[in-house]
Amino acid sequence: MSNRPIIDFDHNSPAFAADPWSVYAYLREQYPVAYTEAHGGFWVISSYADVVRVARDDQTFSSVPTTVIPDSGVYNLIPLQSDPPDVQRYRMALLPYFSAAALQGYEPQVRQFTRECINEFIERGSAELVTELANPVPSMTALKFIGFDPQDWHDFAGPLHQLSFSPDGSEGRQRALEDIAAMDGRITATIEERRRQPRDDAISDLIAYEKDGVRFTADEVHGLVKMLIFGGLDTTMAAASNALLFLSEHPERRQELIERPGRIAGAVDEFLRFEAPVHAFARIVTTDTEIGGHRIRAGERVYMLWASANRDPQQFEHPDEVDFERRPNRHLTFGTGAHRCLGAQLARLELRVMLEEILRRLPDFRIDLENVRQPGSVTIIWGRMALPATFTPGKKE
Ligand code: HEM
């Protein structure tokens, strides 16, 4: 066993946010398994093979109490912050919302939300594509099946957005946590309402869900509902913002998708690989173990860099190029193993529909690069905060 290599790595630092990709390339080559003393100390795992190994070993690597570094103070996200055998029990209850039949039902809804959002700005010839499209469409879609009024999307997306883009210890983070506490109150109140008067939504189903004669506790129902909100909003927004920026910066690649819309689905996966909207998740080591010849002790934290694994040349040819026809494309943007993202297909659907409609209705959109708002720190989500754009005005549909 070799000594622990200590690296100077802080994903929350502004220098890192300016170019995480070169840091990842350096780590993969020089220090694929290394230790940083930032945020109380944790192991940083950057190669595809090691990230897969950790993510698939949920006995040795636990998701309790949190999967983020530094701990955001947001808890009761179920099944994210749980370990086997509970994970499987919880996931079973959520599966119906992500089945092929459910997805078929969501598509017209996603298209309608997208159409309505675009109608709001198409005559203007300008829009802020994050606030007016990338944020509301996934938010409204998720809130609707969960059982909240989609028109209230801002009440939910606002605090999450604030949480995602405010560094630990900042005033913005503090405000976000207060707003999330208020959101918790709203979730509890809505669960109580549905207990009295069930509707056709996920909240009512989860209250009534029973397996082997056992129902979820009130806390579990709360955690499942909260996870659906946390999983489904900011992540997809970030992915859409990254894709739109790429297409604005590469008009010839955009033209390729306008002429061949059949390639959009493949492009979506490639955008997801190229810039993973969740750069990393953490695990806590349950028993002494070893990764890449380094001894890792029980109680230590391990940070799995999905975003770096996605650029590992051992796994992907020309990983720094965007290839819409990349096959296979086994990126780790949705994780792998017991906790693999349940919403992956829904996210793909939302991203495809948003890109299809944008490319059809405002094919010449140009993002004002000077005024793109980039996060100054990679906290949990990697995406753009504001994308001001102009385009030839069109008609409402
Ligand atoms: C591009 C968009 C998305 C990305 C990048 C993403 C990413 C992820 C990742 C990396 C995990 C694995 C967590 C881990 O290993 O600890 C995860 C889990 C999860 N995601 Fe997503 N997600 C996205 C969209 C969605 C959507 C749209 C939903 C639902 C509306 C959703 C619901 C969930 C749930 C419920 C889990 C927990 C699964 C478990 O712990 O067993 N996600 N997501």
Number of β-strand runs: 13
* CATH topology title: Cytochrome p450
Write down the secondary-structure element order: EHHEEHEHHEHHHHHEEHHHHEEEEHHEE
If strands are numbered along the chain, what order do they take across the biggest sheet? 1-2-3-11-8-4
In the predicted model, the low-confidence regions spanning at least 5 consecutive residues are none
Structural class: alpha+beta
The CATH H-level superfamily is Cytochrome P450
Give the strand content: 5-15%
Q: What's the CATH first level?
A: Mainly Alpha
Backbone shape: globular
Radius of gyration: 21 Å
Q: What small molecules does this complex bind?
A: protoporphyrin IX containing FE
- CA(first)-CA(last) distance: 64 Å
**Secondary-structure arrangement, i.e. CATH architecture:** Orthogonal Bundle
Helix percent reads 40-55%
Walk me through this protein's architecture.
With 397 residues, the chain is α+β, with helices and mostly antiparallel strands. It has a single domain, classed as Cytochrome p450 (Orthogonal Bundle), CATH 1.10.630. It is 48% helix and 10% strand. The chain has helices at 14-18, 20-30, 48-56, 86-94, 100-121, 129-134, 136-146, 153-165, 171-196, 202-208, 218-232, 234-249, 251-259, 264-274, 306-309, 344-361; strands spanning 6-7, 33-36, 42-45, 61-62, 126-128, 210-211, 214-215, 280-285, 289-291, 294-296, 301-305, 366-367, 388-390. The relative contact order is 0.19. The structure holds protoporphyrin IX containing FE. Protoporphyrin IX containing FE binds next to helix 4, helix 11, helix 12 and helix 16. The site of protoporphyrin IX containing FE has 29 residues, from helix 4, helix 11, helix 12 and helix 16.
